[in-house]
Amino acid sequence: MKKLSKNSASMVAEARSRIEEIEIQDLINMLDDPNVVVVDIRDVRERQRSGFIPGSVHAPRGMVEFWVDPESPYFKEVFGEDKKFVFHCASGWRSALTVATLQDMGFEASHLREGFSQWVKQEGPVEMPEPKS
Questions:
Q1: Across-strand partners of 111?
Q2: Residues 6+ apart with CB under 8 A from 129
Q3: Rounded distance between C-alpha atoms, residue 37 and residue 34, angstroms
Q4: What would the DSSP string read from start to end of the chain?
Q5: What whole-number distance in Å separates Cα of residue 39 and Cα of residue 19?
Q6: Who's near 49: CB < 8 A, 6+ residues apart?
Q7: What are phi and psi of 68, to 5 degrees?
């Protein structure tokens, strides 16, 4: 197998060095702030299996760059609002890379440093999806 010139861990470390990281307790304290939008980039199956942060917006990782771009045919209005956006995934790796990419595009955002898995372990509020009928 060919050795990569850069591995995923180093990419995440590089991203984290230049983005804003939010701690779990700080995000818990922000949940009632109408000027904060929590964005969950996990796969829909992850949300269905383990729940989600109440009030969070789901934006699949593969579509985020298109959804925040006002010139894209896939643009979502929520990302045009003048609010603080905090992205998260399960462990903080995908969201770090996502936020670094969004910053490169000129979209200001931060991410939940430890991700949803630690959110659950630290007893952050979790909402479960409605059961399918």
A1: 21, 87
A2: 47, 48, 51, 52
A3: 8
A4: -PPPSS-HHHHHHHHHTTSEEE-HHHHHHHTT-TTEEEEE-S-HHHHHHH-B-TTPEE--GGGHHHHH-TTSTT--GGGGSSSEEEEE-SSSHHHHHHHHHHHHHT---EEETTHHHHHHHTT---BPPPPP-
A5: 16
A6: none
A7: -90, -15
- For residues 89 and 12, give the distance between their C-alpha atoms in angstroms, rounded to a whole number: 13
To which residue do tokens 């230049």 refer? Answer: 18
Length of the chain: 133
Give residue 7's Cα distance to chain centre.
21
Q: Which two tokens stand for residue 38?
A: 């929590």
User: What confidence score (pLDDT) does residue 133 get?
Assistant: 67
Given a contact cutoff of 8 angstroms between Cβ atoms, the answer to whether 67 and 76 are in contact is: yes
Task: Name the band, by pLDDT with cuts 50, 70 and 90, for residue 130.
Answer: confident
pLDDT, position 81:
97
What six digits make up the tokens of 44? 């829909």
What whole-number distance in Å separates Cα of residue 124 and Cα of residue 99? 22
